[in-house]
Amino acid sequence: MRSWQYSVIACGVFIDLLTKRLAEHFLSFWVPKQLIPSALSFQLVHNFGAAYGIFQNQRAMLLGISGIVIVGGFIFAKQIGTSKWAKWGLCFLLIGAIGNFVDRLVLGYVVDFIDIHIFPVFNIADVCIDIGIGCFLLDMFFQGREATT
After folding, report:
1. pTM, 2 dp
2. Mind telling me the catalytic residues?
3. N or C: at which end does the chain have fewer Cβ atoms within 10 angstroms?
């Protein structure tokens, strides 16, 4: 891994954890703060599971899976990050995994606060995981196109 990747990961984790602490300080469980009515609001949620509420109250398992993803990501970074898209994908995946891991480890739950009304409430780490997966998919698409030409 290159130093720029460590910097991106550190900044991303900092932003994720900062926004979660701000959400806990300024938001309520019961009264959402509407930004765009019926489309976007901020509301505090403590998620004791994983994405979309699956694996509720499975903290040890979720910590283990996150730990494996984080350690594996750093150990196998050279093999994973063979292209521009894969390097960015790994950075975003690690931001998300580390951010939610820290919450689960320290608080026992993940702080979610972004509500777009068509998905369960989520956070910056969740967005980073999605971006990371998107980058890996783009990498697979472009790698496949290069192989056929």
Report:
1. 0.92
2. 112, 126
3. C
